[in-house]
Amino acid sequence: MSFHERLLDAIDQKQAPICVGIDPMYDHLPADLKTSDQPSPAEIIDAYFDFTMGVLEAVASIVPVVKFQSAYFEQYHAEGVEAYFNLIAEARAMGLLTIGDVKRGDIGSTSSAYAKAHLADIEPGESDSDSIRDDILDPGETPDAITINPMLGIDAIEPFVQRADATGKGLFILVRTSNPGSSDFQDVKLENGLTWSEHLAETLQSRVIAPRIGRSPYTSIGAVVGATQTHTMKSLRGRLPNSMLLLPGYGTQGATADMTRAAFDTNGRGAIVSASRSVLYPKAAPGETWQAAVRRAATSMRDEIRRVLDQASN
Amino acid sequence: MSFHERLLDAIDQKQAPICVGIDPMYDHLPADLKTSDQPSPAEIIDAYFDFTMGVLEAVASIVPVVKFQSAYFEQYHAEGVEAYFNLIAEARAMGLLTIGDVKRGDIGSTSSAYAKAHLADIEPGESDSDSIRDDILDPGETPDAITINPMLGIDAIEPFVQRADATGKGLFILVRTSNPGSSDFQDVKLENGLTWSEHLAETLQSRVIAPRIGRSPYTSIGAVVGATQTHTMKSLRGRLPNSMLLLPGYGTQGATADMTRAAFDTNGRGAIVSASRSVLYPKAAPGETWQAAVRRAATSMRDEIRRVLDQASN
Predict the structure, then answer these.
(1) Are B85 and A78 in contact (CB under 8 A)?
(2) What is the pLDDT of residues A15-56, one digit of tens each?
(3) Domain count of chain A?
(4) Is B38 helix (H, G, I), strand (E, B) or coil?
């Protein structure tokens, strides 16, 4: 089954087009997980592992997919990277779909190496050649999909697309990000009247996505569109009719459920709203455990998105 | 001493504005380093380590700086990442400046985490807050500079710039890449007549680089401009007067020494030409060791660049 089919099934099953972003930050961890005021890297990684396991257990029955932010693990070098891949395997074992938020992007054989690193497990005997061998197509520890950066061009994206095709995995290509400064280089107007992000979306649709349309209206080539960017969402939704849109920025970054409505198709499908800090670090009520607070935050986010989609369908 | 001062001194000392890119590929390794036709990941990593050490020893007296391509190590997950950082420490111990070619880019606190991961060692007690603490400013195992992707905007770049400032390290920001498809999104014309890369260069110069100009005409905020892109090089050189330009694409990708001339200032400074496969994997002459062939390839590249710069100065 392709990634987009697995994702659509999981969203239907949980009636929740939402994603929880795993962004562990030591300063924000629940007090009982902070073993020290001056923790060693090993102590921090252990705390991240325990925290993430607790979050996964709290949300596994509520959300279809979780997104792991590589940077927070990568900053602890090899040990952090080991924790990142181990936690992805744990999430998969709980029946969750996983997105690796790695935002990688390079050219040629370097893109192929990144694609192998983040979409396919390393198996003995795989060479570094670009050829994709059947014996490494076990999904294993690597996520079901990753985010990638398209700035370098279509030929730079192709190795990721080929690896996703060969492994039945997915991509979410950055098209319009959720930060205030995203307008600096993504909103600039081209001489043809399109913004740079609109040109990017149209180029991806015609050269990468359209050739991959199958029975489903959606493909495994999704796009990241910041939920904070309501002025661009309708335009990008229209230009990427066969992409699942991943919408970061909900909650702490300021996006509301109503702001995400334009990213969904009329059938209420085609988008996933992602939140990190607002779900990971809620204020616990008196007597409430931190895991119960996380569960409550994820549930209320789900209900908010459901409310908006129900309104839209009425 | 800031990164650009250390880089300029190293280039002067070796009279060689060149960089060797460390892109280990098992298929291309010298026969005596290939222990197996079906190597395990551990065997591949060991071979990469031995190969890289051999290359570093061969070129250390010829080139001022080496660039490590993270992807080829990252594809072996934690063990590969450990080798990447260990080899950077080895290169530093040989007196080489090091660039981590990681092309990272994200937003806010995630950019801060990437900057910490790749520009500053992790020290016990550093929290995940954005505050930069003196006790983590030891350069240690992390490279002297990294490449970053600017697509997400100036606010997304700022955490990298702040970390580079605080650690005396450098950045090479992707402005125009060396791949054929780089024209898809980097050469598009804006309504103001500039290409997207030119707009990017002007925005970086005015908002990031100009405020950091000191005694030297150069700053520690460099730019990556593909050596294959002669039609853009003059324009980008002019728009980034205070940046060292890192020029990938020499050799295997097709750029010649003459094609790089426009990237250098009239004084023959301001650029570094980078080559990977053409220096790493030369055809050894009969009776020549692979390390001697690597040394010969690096020497002839240096002499070619010198020839072009001498012509330019006459």
Answers:
(1) yes
(2) 999 999 999 999 999 999 998 888 988 999 999 999 999 999
(3) 1
(4) coil
| Residue A86 CA: distances (Å) to CA of A62, A91, B55, B90 | 22, 9, 33, 29
d(CA B51, CA B70): 15
Residues of B classed as catalytic: 103
Query: Which residue segment(s) compose the domain that B152 sits in?
Result: 3-313
Phi/psi for B50 (5° steps) reads -65, -45
Q: What distance in Å separates the CA atoms of residue B100 and residue B213, rounded to the nearest whole number?
A: 23
Taking the CA of residue A199 and the nearest CA in chain B, the distance in Å comes to 8
State mean pLDDT over B60-76.
97
- Amino acid code (one letter) for A290: W
- Domain containing residue B249: CATH number: 3.20.20.70
CB-CB contact of B20 with B280 (8 Å): yes
Active-site entry in A103, A169, A234, A283: A103
> Considering Cα of A179, then B136, then A68, then A280, what sign does the dihedral take?
negative
**Could you give the C-alpha distances from A193 to A189, A190, A238, B10, B193, in angstroms and in order?**
6, 5, 16, 47, 12
Contact residues on chain B for A141, CB-CB shorter than 8 A = 77
Residues on chain B touching A72 (C-beta within 8 angstroms): 110, 113, 128
Structure tokens at A93: 């074992």
Q: Which two tokens stand for residue A278?
A: 């607002």
Convert A216-239 into a string of H (helix), E (strand) and C (coil): CCCCCEEEEECCCCHHHHHHHHHH
Contact A151 B151 (CB under 8 A): yes
Kindly determine whether residue B181 and residue A155, on different chains, have CB atoms separated by under 8 Å. yes
Smallest CA-to-CA distance from A182 within A147, A222, A221, A228 is with A228
- For residues A280 and A213, give the distance between their C-alpha atoms in angstroms, rounded to a whole number: 36
CA–CA gap between residue A56 and residue A22 (Å, rounded): 9
CA B147 to chain centroid, in Å, comes to 6
> The pTM is what?
0.95
Measured in angstroms, the CA of B209 and the nearest CA of chain A are apart by 16
Whether ipTM tops 0.90, in short, is yes
CA distance B217 to chain A (A): 26
Question: C-alpha angle with apex A235: A229 to A238, nearest 5 degrees?
Answer: 130
Q: Hey, of A128, A198, A253, which one would you mutate to test binding to chain B, going by the most B CBs within 10 A of its CB?
A: A128
Cβ contact (<8 Å) for B72 and A149? no
Q: How far apart are CA B14 and CA B265, in angstroms?
A: 18
| Residue type (1 letter), B98 | T
The whole-angstrom separation of Cα B96 and Cα A242 is 49
| Pairwise CA distance, residues B256 & A74, whole Å | 36
Best B122, B204, B207 residue to mutate vs chain A (most A CBs within 10 Å): B122
pLDDT digits (tens, 9 = 90+) for B130-159: 444 434 434 468 999 999 999 999 999 999
